[in-house]
Amino acid sequence: MTTLPSGFARARRWLREHPLAFDAALAFCVLIAMICGSFADPGKGHGPTFGTRTPEAFSVLLMVLAASALVLRRRHPMPVLAVTGGFAAVEYIFIDPPAPVVMSTVIALYTVASRTDRPTTWRVGLLTMGILTVAAMVFGSTPWYSQENLGVFAWTGMASAAGDAVRSRRAFVDAIRERAERAERTREEEARRRVAEERLRIARDLHDVVAHHIALVNVQAGVAAHVMDKRPDQAKEALAHVRDASRSALNELRVTVGLLRQSGDPEAPTEPAPGLAVLDELVATFRNAGLPVEVVGADRAPRLPAAVDLAAYRVIQEALTNVRKHAGADARAEVSVVRVGVTAEITVLDDGRGSVARGPDAESAPDGGGHDGGGHGLLGMRERVTALGGALTAGPRYGGGFRVHAILPIEARTGEPEPPGPAAVTGEHR
To answer: DSSP H helical segments within 289-334, as ranges?
Structure first.
């Protein structure tokens, strides 16, 4: 069984979807009210009396025309106000006592006030109030201070005020709705931005892991193939290093890819992210691959914040990987981690002579085998460092070799990446 509130809700929804039908019904109700009011005589001292007078035919015509004009009040508010106001003024001028044609003017004035701005509302409202009040006071047979004449002034004023209040409320509701929609769009944009940042971070991690370990696997596999026949013991040792590097790569890839799992997937590994605490193990992998690495300074206590610690580790890892791939067979590397005030400075130097492999044609250079070709190494390091509010420079050293220098704030902060400096651009191909 349909309840009364739901019936009202459906009726209101239907009227909102069919405004012309609502205006036609309103016009009919106003016409009935005007006709009923035209049978009332204001009286002299004891209030109005009904049935003591009948409206003239001309008054009935004006009431019908004025009510008919209200059907178009939403589409043409100003013309409808002018028409109904004119009919009301004509009624006051030529008919005594006048029929209440002014009722239609009150409805039209409310419509104008609710659909225009405040200055227009008050200009039009004062003009309508003045014309109709003066017409009623001057041309009517009652005294100018009679309640009927003051009622014209009061009703037209209240129509303007009510319409302006409705317009203000609609504007307020629209503003709230617009702010809510803007906030929703902002949340969606923030979510997309965070997703993009997370994808970029995961891409950097994958690049660091793959570039480092696969480069070591490639080198050790080449050594094993070269000495397999003449020195099988050395070949076995190289293959053992290949196994260790590949296992380490798989473990780090499992941790990184675990971040992409859904909530219902099996639990991802919980191993801590690499940092300077395992710097010796990282250096050992490069030494096993044939790259002499010397750690001249490793200030690791107290431990750096997690994000800074990981960034420092990745910078060293990527820089040593580039040395192993591009600096030449006899290159040596030097790593230092030093705290200076509230910053940590990471420096990786090498004395390699692989200048051809470090140029724009590194992919095709004979001693640059294993070059990643994408040129994302230094770009990834720069993005990591600048995301924490630090700075990174990289470029050739005077007299040969290459230098990577990163300055990381100990208190990590998120910042916009700075444009690459000249030194960074020099080594961007790495």
So the answer is: 306-326
